[in-house]
């Protein structure tokens, strides 16, 4: 069973084998964590992502980490659901993002993975529910990953993830 941690910080500075990007389906970069990862990884990430696009909501694909600092070797891109009020199976799509990202991490041989709070930014997913889904999913998915780190960009997200982990 993987060790699960919650931290607050910049996902592009985590000392892990792979980081997960909360991407859009074009995999060419965007705002929020997606933009931060693309900026830190350099322009080759956009080219590599474009070659794999489109990525459907709930799925995940990987690229090299390019200019991100080691030990980060891979960026796992996943497309979360856009919140539509909870009536369009958003919860299962969000859970699939975490599950598929761990499957991709296993296929890459990654032993440590950092996740952002997927879909809680411009995609509008309610942060408290998203935190519960993230923690419940990564706790129950069989994986060879040894360390799963949930990285909150801000204090409110950190507190929600911590409460979900302790709850």
From TrEMBL:
SUPFAM superfamilies: Macro domain-like (SSF52949). Pfam families: Macro. PROSITE patterns: MACRO. Residues 1-167 form the Macro domain. This is O-acetyl-ADP-ribose deacetylase. It comes from Jiangella anatolica.
